[in-house]
Amino acid sequence: MPTIHEELDRRQLLYSLLMPVMNLYVPGLDKGKGLYFLFVKAETKTPGGLLARPVLTSYYNSDHFKTRPYDPFNVYTSPNEAILCVDSFQSMYAQMLCGLIMRDEVLRVGAVFASGLLRAIHFLQNNWKQLAHDIATGTLNPKITDAPVRECMRKILKPNPELAQLVIMECYEENWECIIKRIWPRTKYLDVIVTGAMAQYIPTLEYYSGGLPMACTMYASSECYFGLNLNPMCKPSEVTYTIMPNMAYFEFLPHGSSTSCLVNLAEVEVGKEYELILTTYAGLCRYRVGDILRVTGFHNAAPQFRFIRRKNVLLSIESDKTDEAELQNAIENASLLLKEFNTSVVEYTSYADTKQIPGHYVIYWELLVKDSAIAPTDDVLNRCCLQMEESLNSVYRQSRVADNSIGPLEIRVVENGTFEELMDYAISRGASINQYKVPRCVSFTPIMELLNSRVVSKHFSPDLPHWTPERRRS
Ligand code: AMP
């Protein structure tokens, strides 16, 4: 996405409105700190030599963030050095350690997306012993080698056996229900986006937080920041975002209607759904973001929108977005490995399994084995998983390789006839036989139950796909 320096001011403007709005609903947030898990990623160069990095990496690396003036409403437990460390393990470790050390001061816990906060909890599950050791002894885990992080942790870390004991007591038990409230008892709410694709994480977050409110404060993208939620303590299902007209020029394409006439921001109609179209200061012109929004009402004259869904995205675990065409391409590439076994993929569907952390893609395959004497081996099906991963986009592969935030892709081979049963089921629920299409992504429980009851074998990617920070010329 093209961007320009002044775009940082617009982003800063939106950020600066979040706490004044929150302060209307949750008093006293200036009396403590926010435990936020924020990360940067490695920078790359485009073939033309321009710097390329994720939008948040760009923001956290800017002076707007790094040299922000003291504001009692925006004090974080994470030092800049920890946030700006590109090694995701070291960054998370230092942020978690600071969060534990400052546990009594923490009033809100968050990450950008729900998936990020769950990753942090999972990290605590895996690393609490070492973290408690560091707190007890006042020494830093030798795996933390980043010099700025070591230097700043040296000032923060002091031996505190009592706190270490508390961490051990809370984390030692199998039961992690309510862990956020147990470790950070003053937490008033979770600051995470749980709308759109992130809604899948609500039950898990409720479990770990003991039902703390979840605030979805803003709606933004790499292309442009859009707006904020003026009622951030509402239920996730009721979240609406008010688009700020000064962030870009916004137009709206009526969704699901044959007209291609664009509607201006001030002219959208309540109840209707639109696709968001942007013209940005940085040079995008009538660009289709791919988000479908529904107008729910107005704040003064500014329309408010519910995020409905992203067009064409089938699978998403965190920042990855895999659409139907990409999935199809990945399946085609993987199925080439089956050729020598005289086998083909007759049908497939997919599922984003986020029950475990990290989540992973599950692909259901129905195979046609033409000669059972040379049926594909376990090994080749495992390699099919890896081949699919190799075919997926670089955001997916980066999450797999560098961030470890997506687990190995899984193929579940189902019995012959399973997809026919799936169709029978859809028809029994009113689908038209003529117009029936195999769903390329599933999540509806009865369908999942049907598929899972027909699984004959499961296969996982045996290795990491290829990914390097350098962009390859293609
Ligand atoms: P990215 O450019 O990768 O950061 O992704 C931006 C996309 O994430 C948006 O276009 C939306 O599809 C989604 N997104 C961002 N903020 C929200 C939100 N508050 N609720 C739902 N989806 C969101």
From TrEMBL:
Renumbered to this chain, the signal peptide range is: none
Mind listing the UniProt keywords for this protein, alphabetically? Ligase
Q: Which residues form the GH3 C-terminal domain?
A: 326-444
The GH3 middle domain extends over 241-310
Give coiled-coil spans as residue ranges: none
Transmembrane region positions?
none
One Gene Ontology term of the molecular function aspect:
acid-amino acid ligase activity
Q: GO terms for CC? A: cytoplasm
Q: Which family does it belong to?
A: Belongs to the IAA-amido conjugating enzyme family.
The cross-references to PANTHER family, in alphabetical order and at most eight, read: GH3 DOMAIN-CONTAINING PROTEIN (PTHR31901), INDOLE-3-ACETIC ACID-AMIDO SYNTHETASE GH3.2-RELATED (PTHR31901:SF7)
User: What is the name attached to this protein's record?
Assistant: Indole-3-acetic acid-amido synthetase GH3.1
